[in-house]
Specification:
Order of helices and strands: EEHHHHEEHHHHHHHH
Largest sheet: 2 strands, antiparallel
Oligomer: single chain
Strand order of the largest sheet: 1-2
């Protein structure tokens, strides 16, 4: 925070103590946003500078871990978006002269500290994402988010990020439902871009899989070689249907954490496969 945003610092001018107005404004916004979301009047002692209140909230041993992660997420979202824009604006350079760390460097260090201390979270594009397997996160989840960041896949990206948010909040049924939505939205986008016919209102994941395979999004020879490809692609809808897709009856269905994690990782793998295949198809047609 000190190196990437700037902490509250009093400056003496003509015998009057003044804070850095831009830095204080940023901390005011951060404090207001988080306190409002948490239903609190203040994060620290009333009347205390907002920057100090955020520090106190972070360091207070009684602050729930989820709220600490919320604070880290909000502050790094400001570093990632607001500070980045301010640094690119010439008129604010004098106000940000104390910044010693660029946004990308701060984000990289945060994620390094998380890994260094075995904390299973990473900051990615405005969101703290729970990480259960470092290898899967680096090789599957991050590439999936990167591939979905292009404008045409924005709907799928929002749903995939929502699935991770639910997972972080231990809402495993909702995580699986949104994972399937992201998977279906990815296929619908590809069908739209390639002008392949499907019913936007009625076609489920199974029908959409039929469409993309029929149109050889994945080459025919590869489909034949990987006889289980369809089963792999249908894995997420199956998990959703069995755990979250229908009425649960008289007995509540409890979705275990490891099953939700598997659904998210399977979704990410499917998205990487489909989007990479789509990009390859687009390149070959040019």
């Amino acid at each position: 925070w000190s190196s990437a945003i700037g902490l509250y610092r009093e400056q003496e001018r003509f015998g009057i103590h003044l804070g850095n107005p831009l830095v204080n404004q940023l901390w005011n916004e951060i404090h207001y946003y988080l306190a409002r979301e948490l239903g609190l009047f203040n994060l620290g002692s009333k009347g205390e500078n907002y920057c100090y209140q955020c520090q106190s909230f972070l360091l207070n041993k009684d602050t729930p871990i989820d709220n600490i992660l919320d604070l880290i997420e909000v502050t790094f979202r400001y570093i990632d978006k607001e500070i980045r824009e301010l640094l690119q604006s010439y008129q604010y350079k004098d106000h940000l002269q104390d910044i010693r760390q660029l946004p990308d460097e701060a984000i990289s260090e945060l994620n390094h500290r998380f890994r260094e201390h075995g904390i299973g979270y990473q900051y990615n594009n405005g969101q703290i994402i729970r990480v259960d397997s470092g290898f899967i996160h680096a090789e599957v989840v991050v590439p999936a988010l990167s591939l979905l960041s292009s404008q045409q896949f924005k709907g799928a990206e929002q749903e995939f990020r929502s699935a991770h948010q639910h997972y972080r909040n231990q809402k495993y049924k909702e995580a699986i439902v949104d994972a399937l939505k992201a998977f279906e939205s990815t296929m619908k986008t590809i069908c739209d871009e390639c002008t392949w016919s499907y019913d936007p209102q009625k076609d489920s994941a199974r029908k959409l899989i039929d469409v993309v395979l029929k149109n050889e999004l994945v080459p025919l020879y590869l489909q034949n070689h990987l006889s289980s490809l369809r089963s792999v692609l249908e894995g997420v809808p199956t998990i959703r249907n069995q755990t979250s897709g229908h009425g649960q009856g008289s007995q509540p269905i409890s979705v275990p954490e490891h099953l939700a994690a598997f659904a998210l990782h399977l979704t990410a793998s499917n998205i990487v496969l489909l989007v990479e295949a789509y990009k390859a198809k687009q390149s070959s047609s040019k």
